[in-house]
Amino acid sequence: MGAQPVVCSPVATLADLVQEYTDLGEPVVTQLQRLVAGWGVLSDLCFADLLLFVPVKGSDDEFVVVGQIRPTTSQTLHLDDLVGRVIGSQDRPIMSRAWSLGSVVEGEVQIPSRNERGRLVCIPVRWQDELVAILTRESALTVGRRPGVLERVYVEVFDRLARMISRGEFPFPVDEPAMAETPRVGDGVMVLDASARVDYASPNAVNALHRLGLYSGIEGVRLDEAGLEQTAVSLAYQTCLPAVEEVGDGETSVMIRCVPLLDQRVVTGALVLVRDVSDLRRRDRLLMSKDAAIREVHHRVKNNLQTISSLLRIQYRRMAPGEARHALEESERRVRSIAVVHEILSRDTTDEVEFNDILPSLLRMAEDMGSTDRPVLITCRGEPGRLQASVATPLAVVLNELLQNTAEHAPGVHDGVSAERPLRVDVELSRSDDELSVLVRDNGVGLPDGFSIDDTSSLGLSIVRGLVGTQLGGTISMRTDGGTVVELSVPLDHPSDDLESL
Questions:
Q1: I need a labelling partner for 177 at 20 to 30 A (CA). Which of 236, 262, 425, 437 fits?
Q2: Bridge partners for 85 per DSSP
Q3: Residue 465 belongs to what domain range?
Q4: Does residue 283 sit in the same domain as residue 366?
């Protein structure tokens, strides 16, 4: 690129580079982004690196690289990342000539990273008849090598697309959906003529058609005449826009993407990319089956837990008031809090739950412990977001225990003592990238003198201490401040242990 030092911008995105170095408007930026989004096909067709240059504002002879792509069908010419570099016209006079003429110009350029010369084709990029950028095709000099039929056809298609770019007909004025399985040139290529008959089919394209049961010669016939649906082809020819469809018989699936080739807005042919996606669809079906099985497991676990909860409820209702009945009540509520988590998990395909969906059930269980003498009013603030089931399950049990403990030990709720005001409980949750914080505050009588959660004999608080310290790997503190205040800190990347460790 010459001996002159280059300026390398720390900004990486095309939009930011254009904003920093040029006065181009948003519509032009969008069009350039469309070009860069789909130019992998262009690079593969011409077996060369592609660079996108825009002129630097306030300068007549400087351009900045806003895009770069390497081919998957050939070796790259540039070993360096050139995006963000400012290039002077003295380094690439051919590019400056293409800009001044507004037409395709070919020549050679020095490649410093390889200490050799390469072949350079400069293609004007237009938007609404306005010259806005230069697309360069850069490849090694080919000496004494005769290209095969496939290479000649691919380069011819690239040249047709390059002429579309110079006329402002490519990229198309639509945003195509980005799909990971979208066919590339290496997957298979067919070239159609103006009447949608096949002029050329690459070996990989023929193989893909064989998967669909088409073994007869495909060249010279239309796809529908060969027995293949051509909805995408018909749509592309009618609308002058690319179209995608997937054909197959269930076991075999082939994706077809048809890109019309235009000349003055008239369809003169089409580039058809094909890809056998049968294995991808088979894996999709397996994943869907696995997801359904996981959901069914969570559903059955939830049903079993609810059955256990019902049995415990029936049992304690038949018992006389006392310590045994109270223990069964607490056990029933703990089982129910775990069932809530599995109910949420049974609705989703991931191992995560939206904890905000669990909180209402936990709050209702605690509020149900209130009485007409002193109702329990709970407010909840914050967004815990999605949590792994390994965090959500013990956290649900911990919150359930804390809320039940607050409601149970509030004067006037169970002991018949009247109170002038209801028991109010505030729950606040806040989340950072790697930690979840929970604060539970009430307006009760507070903790007894000398209380320590590490020395408590309460079963509920012992469960809380064990779950927080072992399964959640967090910390807990309790203090009196106008009532009882409990603070939890739970790391979100802690590997949880088994319940048996409690």
A1: 262
A2: 8
A3: 352-502
A4: no
Domain check: are 436 and 447 in the same one?
yes
Same domain as 388, residue 430: yes
Contact by Cβ (8 Å): 363, 404: no
Residue 456 CA from chain centroid, whole number: 46
End residue of a domain, out of 167, 201, 235: 167
Which three-class secondary structure state does DSSP give residue 445? coil
Cα gap 426→421, rounded to integer Å? 15
Q: Are residues 91 and 153 in the same domain?
A: yes
Q: Is 268 helix (H, G, I), strand (E, B) or coil?
A: strand
Tens digits of residue pLDDT in 61-110 = 899 999 999 999 888 888 889 999 999 888 889 999 999 999 999 998 88
Cα→Cα distances 117→2, 108, 144, 341, Å:
11, 7, 16, 65
User: 333, 350, 367 — which closes off a domain?
Assistant: 350
Asked, for residue 178, whether it belongs to a domain, the answer is no
| Beta carbons within 8 Å of 443's beta carbon, 6+ residues apart | 421, 423, 424, 482, 483
Contact at 8 Å (CB) between 243 and 235?
A: yes
Q: What pTM was computed for the model?
A: 0.61
383-438 pLDDT, tens per residue? 888 888 788 888 888 888 888 878 776 554 444 444 556 788 899 999 888 889 99
Report how many domains make up the chain: 4
C-alpha distances in Å from residue 363, one per residue of 40, 253, 280, 335: 54, 50, 44, 15
Residues 145, 17, single domain; the answer is yes
Burial of 179 (0-12, 13-18, 19+ CB in 10 A): exposed
The C-alpha atoms of residue 362 and residue 398 are separated, in whole angstroms, by: 10
